[in-house]
Amino acid sequence: MYSDGRGGHVVVYVPxxxxxxxxxxxxxxxxxxAATARVYDADMKNSWPIYRIFFSDGxxxxxxxxxRGQWECxxx
Length: 76
Description:
four-stranded antiparallel beta sheet; alpha+beta; globular
């Protein structure tokens, strides 16, 4: 969870990579940098191939959502 810098929050979900896959070192570094940030920056999402983002106002109401990538939902 990040601050949006205007009194709201930004909740980001980035799934772990699938078993047997690895991330490029530069992507891993970008993810570590984003994890230590306190205020959301739109450039953060450039390092996330799959994500769900929810933007909430100061009252906790989700006002915008955004997503990218194919979600692996279920296993058989």
